Amino acid sequence: MKEIKEDKEEFDVKYIKELDEYFTAYMSALINEIFVGVGINLGLSEKKAYSLAKNDPEKLEKAKFFSSIFDKFKGIFNYKVPKFRYKKKIYGDGKPMTPVQWDTFNNSIDSFWKDRANAVAEDLAVKSHELGKQTTEYRKTKKPYKNKSLQQVDFEQYDGKMPSTFSDAYKKYDFGNKEKQNLNKEFSSVAMYVTKTNDDIKEAIRQNIQIGMDENKSPQSIASDLYWNIEKNENLNNKYTAESLRRNWSRVASTELATIYNNATLQEFEDDAMKSLKASSKSVYFVRTGGNCKWCLSVRGTIVRLVPNEIVTDTKNESLRSMGIKDPHTDIAIWIGKNNVGLKEKDWMISVPGHPNNVATFSPIDLGKEEYNPKTDDVEKKQEKDKYIPQQIDYAERSKEEKDARKPTFVGANLVRMNNSVYEAVDSEDYKKKKAKWDKDPSLPIPVNKNSTDFKQIFDEAEKNR
Ligand SMILES: [Zn+2]
Q1: Which of 211, 326, 349 is nearest to 277 (CA)?
Q2: What is the pLDDT of residues 215-236, one digit of tens each?
């Protein structure tokens, strides 16, 4: 039984969890440096300023600093965290700063924050998206993936060169127009939070200094308030300390990454979702898995069907019927970008993430062959009662849709569907191993040696149907 924690949910896929970990650590380090710089400006020694940033004076216990995290990911990320130092005194010479002086000070924070935070945010958005697509690929090929590290995925799937910018990703990989639109929309949401955090930092410093002046506090005690605000000054909104800014950021980062990641896992099914409007045999179903809070537990195992965004006219209504779709398996529609932002808990729809800090996911399910197992919270193959039932051949006139389903069509980078079977292109040196596996488990894609004539027939034909 998984441990149930209500406040913090954790991704059960290691590589996305690690990405989240880096993103949070890097941005927290930037926030820290700004506050350390301000502390020094207010008269603290550098040592004292850093130790305040690291230690909660209430508990006097060392908080984890970030160097171990940066070390762990240094093969993937090389973003620097420089020092923030502002030379002109912002408090302490008896005169409040003029608006022009505040502007200059704020500009120095902007220039420290913006370029770095934006670059990292873009990198992380691109990587979450890539990882989401990768997860779909792993699931499809039934490969174990949950324990793969970010470094491993980067090495195995991207030759150690996972893209870090949109232009990089668009150049190297095929992106459909809709996919680009989705990703752009998601990134602008992250970028908005990056800007908002920048504004919150400036506001936090301005307010703390203003209140310090009004109350004749010493610069050192203002500096200490900036970090922790242990006196819980009633006039100060709690969000205006380094600690709460970091915590707030961490929540936002996890939620945004989860959004991009999960949307990307659905990307590849969008075509079929569109086709399913005309041919129900194309319908794509998912099960909501993961998430440890009460709400998530109550909706675990819910079956949903993916629909294309185009038919969603009311984003607060998830009923398939309301969209004119009658489905025997579920009435709940999901679409890329579905979310619960702005909804009260009682009105939450089945989405991932469903709430801030949520790490639930949609696992694809083939309702004919698979079922949801509440014990493992995962999709598993149905227990077969009979060993092998030969498929009945239907000689009746075939519909256009059926004929289309019989044509070889790419359903993944190395996978082609033809006559209701899925074939996987395999290098000749791997063929024997794959074949042996498939002999044991015929539900796997049928391996096809790249050097064989079968390969040409299936995959070249599929290339034409792209
Ligand atoms: Zn939850």
Answers
A1: 326
A2: 888 888 888 777 765 445 444 4
